[in-house]
Each structure stands twice: as C-alpha cells, then as structure tokens.
Specification:
With 360 residues, this protein is α+β, with helices and mostly antiparallel strands. The chain has four domains: 7-15 and 83-176, Reverse transcriptase/Diguanylate cyclase domain (Alpha-Beta Plaits), CATH 3.30.70; 17-80, MutS, DNA mismatch repair protein, domain I (3-Layer(aba) Sandwich); 180-232, 5' to 3' exonuclease, C-terminal subdomain (DNA polymerase, domain 1, Orthogonal Bundle), CATH 1.10.150; 246-358, DNA polymerase, Y-family, little finger domain (Dna Ligase, domain 1). The protein has 13 helices and 13 strands. It has helices spanning 15-23, 52-55, 65-71, 82-97, 122-140, 152-159, 175-179, 192-200, 206-211, 214-221, 223-232, 262-282, 315-326; strands at 7-12, 32-35, 47-50, 76-78, 102-106, 110-114, 144-149, 167-169, 248-259, 285-296, 301-312, 336-344, 347-348. The strands form three sheets. A five-stranded mixed beta sheet has the order 5-6-1-7-8. Strands 9, 10, 11, 12 and 13 form a five-stranded antiparallel beta sheet that branches. Strands 3-2-4 form a three-stranded mixed beta sheet. A hairpin with a 4-residue loop joins strand 10 and strand 11. Helix 4 crosses helix 5 and helix 12 (262-282) packs antiparallel against helix 13 (315-326). It starts with 6 loop residues before the first strand and ends in a 12-residue tail after the last strand.
C-alpha cells in the first residue's frame, strides 16, 4: 500500500432524471427535465436536473424553467419526486460504503471514498472503481461517473470530466496537465461573481490562476484569494469524514404565482415538511433547529431560525415552529414568491426528547 492518498469521487449521472427514466421506460429517448411546472413557458422556479438529451438543447440545472421551455418545448417536464430519489440514493450509498471505511456522502447524488488502504496503486483503484460502477448499474439500473485523484478536489473535477458513465484518473504527476486547461469557473468555490472579477484580471483558466501573483489575489479576495491559489495548484488537504455528511435537510418551493394568502403558504409549509420528514426518520436523524426562508415578489429574502434545548424528530414540532417563524412575514402587503423549510443542528441514532410544550 502506498503512503499517498487515493480518493474516489462518485457522481450519479443526471440523478433525478435517470431515476425517473428507470421508473418509466417510456421516457427513454426523450428530453427529460425535472423541476417546476413550465406552464407553457410562463412557469416559475428552476430546473432541478435534466437528462443528457435535454442538455443538447441547452437546458441546464438551475436554469429558470421558463427558459428551459423556450429551449426545449418538446421535453417531458416532471415535478420532483424526492421520496423516490432518496430511496434510490440510500440503496446506492449502501453499496458504496462497503468498499471503504472512509466514506463521505455529499448531498443526495455524490460521495467521496478514501481507498488508500484498499488498493496498491492507481491501476488497482481503476479496477475497484469499475467494480463499483458495475455493481451500482446491475443492482439499481443507474449509472455513475468516477474521478480518481490524490485529493478531493482532483477527484471531484475528474468525475465531471467524462460523463455519463465515465472514469477519469489523474495521477499526481499529471495534476497540472489536467487542471491548468480547465475554465477557472470549474474550480470548486468559484462562483459567477468571482469568475467575473478573475476575468477582469485576465484569469480565464485554472492555470492562469495558479500562475497569478498570490499576494495580489489576497489583496483583492482576502483569505479566499490564498485558498483559490492553493486549489488552482492542485493542493487540497481536506479529509474524508462522515461527520460532515449532512449539515441540514429541507425543501423549498417557488409558487407558480406570487401569493399573499397565509393559508396557501402554511399548506405549502406542510407539504414541504411531509416531503423530507421520511428522510429524517429513515436516517435516524434528529434536529435541534428549525429554519424558514421567505422570498417576496421583489426578491427581498428573509430567513429566521429557532433552536431548542433538546433534540427531536417530531413532524408536528417542525410544522408548528415553521409557521410561527413565518407568521411575522405575512399579511404585510407583500406577496410571497418562495417559501423554504430546513432543519439543522443534526445528530444521528440517539433517543430523542419530545418538546410537548410547543405542540400548539
């Protein structure tokens, strides 16, 4: 076994759309877009996931659903079925976990595995990755792409390099050759605003960033400038840790039309909580904090949270608390565009204490 780390990043391909196709074979060969109802191009909300055929029309995740409709009106548009996706994800993660003792799930469709003590070299890691891919496909009829590298950064970028059902290996001696030509936007943590600032500095690729003066980056971006420079040079010492698997769980919905009726908003809160509560129970999860998010028609956004002395997994507590937190933002002459509910302060597997005093 080598003393160098070998990390795998598993990324399920177009996950929501792929699960829908698996459940309904009639969708095969059609552009599938999972997200809000497009309402003939007048719909609200965004694309959650789309399959690769729809991407040929220019549709992308997080795109406004109205734009997706203009690009691909012939597509099949589906509302998300989170219960279905979570069940599929749980089965796949169970398959992957058995391959290593160092496992970190990232969201519903990604995971990191440290296989340093399971393989002797990168060729061995490739064989292991192919075995994983085959097992996931044979048992769950879904595909995943795998990236292999010396750290989490390289592995994640590698998994996105060839999709779908790809496998990309980046050995330590090839890190710069792999990283440097990539657009700087590909670097983890570089968002649209940072990308614009970097392009103003003449930085278009990760290689440009790696060669850029570090002190200048720090002056402009602060601590993040130093971190970006380090990442651009392929340096990432972050560990694989299960403890950071899930920090919060929740849902949000953008209304088809802006609303000001509290009953409609409270009904949406109930529906959102019903959607994710099964995940809470199935994971042995308990929460200490309930969070709400409200966005008005002018995109003004507010968040509020309430924390409790004890942990719980009680659905009634979440619903009552979320409504209490939302109440001050209603009936004030502003229509609501989006409502979201989230729980945080999580722990797993221990007995809970019920907060009966807030069962209103």
């Amino acid at each position: 076994m080598s003393d160098k780390r070998i990390i795998l990043h598993i990324d399920l391909d177009a996950f929501f759309a792929s699960v829908e196709e698996r459940e309904n074979p009639e969708l095969k060969g059609k552009p599938v877009i999972v997200g809000a109802n497009p309402k003939n191009g007048q719909g609200r909300g965004v694309v959650s996931t789309c399959n690769y055929l729809s991407r040929e029309f220019g549709v992308r995740s997080a795109m406004p659903i109205s734009k997706a409709w203009r690009l691909c009106p012939q597509g099949v548009y589906l509302r998300p079925n989170f219960e279905l996706y979570e069940k599929a994800s749980a089965k796949i993660m169970e398959i992957l976990r058995k391959y290593t003792d160092k496992f970190e799930q990232v969201g519903i469709d990604e995971a990191f595995l440290d296989v340093s003590d399971k393989v002797k070299d990168y060729e061995d890691a490739m064989e292991l990755a192919n075995k994983m891919k085959r097992e996931v496909f044979n048992k769950e009829k879904l595909t995943c792409s795998v990236g292999i590298g010396s750290n989490k950064l390289i592995a994640k970028l590698a998994s996105d390099y060839k999709k779908p059902y790809g496998l990309t290996v980046v050995k330590p001696e090839n890190v710069r050759r792999f990283l440097y030509p990539l657009p700087v936007r590909k670097l983890i943590g570089v968002g649209p605003k940072t990308e614009i600032k970097l392009k103003e500095l003449g930085v278009k690729t990760i290689g440009d960033l790696a060669k850029f003066n570090k002190e200048t980056l720090i002056k402009i971006f602060g601590k993040w400038g130093a971190e970006m420079h380090q990442l651009a040079n392929g340096i990432d010492n972050s560990d694989i840790t299960e403890a950071h698997e899930i920090k919060s769980v929740g849902r949000e919905v953008t209304f088809e039309k802006d609303v000001d009726d509290p009953e409609i908003i409270f009904s949406a809160i109930n529906d959102l909580i019903d959607e994710f509560h099964e995940e809470i129970i199935g994971s042995g999860m308990q929460f200490k904090t309930v969070n709400i998010k409200i966005r008005y028609e002018n995109f003004e956004t507010h968040t509020r949270a309430k924390s409790f002395e004890f942990y719980s997994n009680d659905k009634v507590i979440i619903k009552n608390t979320a409504k209490q937190l939302a109440q001050p933002f209603l009936n004030i002459g502003k229509k609501v565009r989006l409502i979201g509910v989230r729980i945080s302060g999580l722990k797993f597997g221990e007995s809970q204490k019920i907060l009966k005093d807030i069962r209103l």
